Amino acid sequence: MTKNITIITILLIIVAVGIVYLTPKKEVLAPTVEGPKPIELCFAKIGTPNERGFYDKYTLRMLLSGEGGVNATGELKFLPAEKDSKVGKFEGTVSAVDKKMMARTADLWWNSLAEGMREKEELKIIFGEGVANIGLGLMDYRKEDNTVVYKNPNEINYSLTLNDVACSDITERENVESYLRANIGTLSPVKAVLGGNWNVLTYTVDLGKNTGTVTYEDGHIQEKKNFSYTINEKSEVQSMTLI
Q: Is residue 7 a part of any domain in this protein?
């Protein structure tokens, strides 16, 4: 009897061991470690319309990533009144906070487009305390790597100051302009004459009231109308009416 019990016990042990080894093992996943989330900063300088309704627009979007926000990508747009524009995306690195200035310096390469010409040029921006100062100065073409760099790095002018704004404000302003330019032909309550097509000359927008003014022409006559619009949660224009 004791012998039979021993044999049964051994068989049970063998079966148990077999079940352990034959049972599919669940894969143990290592915990995902997320890095710091990118920080988006936006700055702008919007001028006052002149007698013809034109005004300066300077906007800067900057995305800081990496530990301590040491990497930067973004876009800078120079849209001066009645002068050539200069726009483009950039990338580069960002310094630690300067304790005296309480600001950081972004050392960037700007892929700018101006007057139909695209160049890779050096760009420095000092930002902090709610403002961003764009580094301007004489530039030199560098043959060895086909880039444009500051001619005198010690004489960079940082007098162009942009103030921090909500990134959604820049997005809404750009979306309103794009919508106007794409749809002015059907939005206008006045028909173009002599086979012309309406083209937007300039516009202003009140982001708080979702209203604005647009001036447009067809090559023969010019119109100036007020408008109102609605947007969605992504700052995309849903509807617009010219009055």
A: no
pLDDT, one tens digit per residue, over 183-195 is: 999 999 999 999 9
Query: In DSSP terms, which residues pair with 204 in a beta bridge?
Result: 213
For residue range 134-174, list pLDDT tens digits in order: 999 999 999 999 999 999 999 999 999 999 999 999 999 99
Whether residue 205 is predicted with pLDDT greater than 90 in this model: the reply is yes
Structure tokens at 71: 């990497």
Smallest CA-to-CA distance from 93 within 130, 122, 128, 60 is with: 122
| SS3 (DSSP) at 237 | strand
Residue 27 lies in a domain: no
- Residue type at 241 in one-letter notation: T
Q: What type of residue is 148?
A: V
The reply to whether 121 and 64 lie within a common domain is yes
- This model's pTM is above 0.85: no
Question: Is residue 51 domain-shared with residue 140, that is, in the same domain?
Answer: yes
125 class by beta-carbon count within 10 Å (0-12 exposed, 13-18 middle, 19+ buried): buried
Task: Identify the domain boundary among 135, 165, 195.
Answer: 165
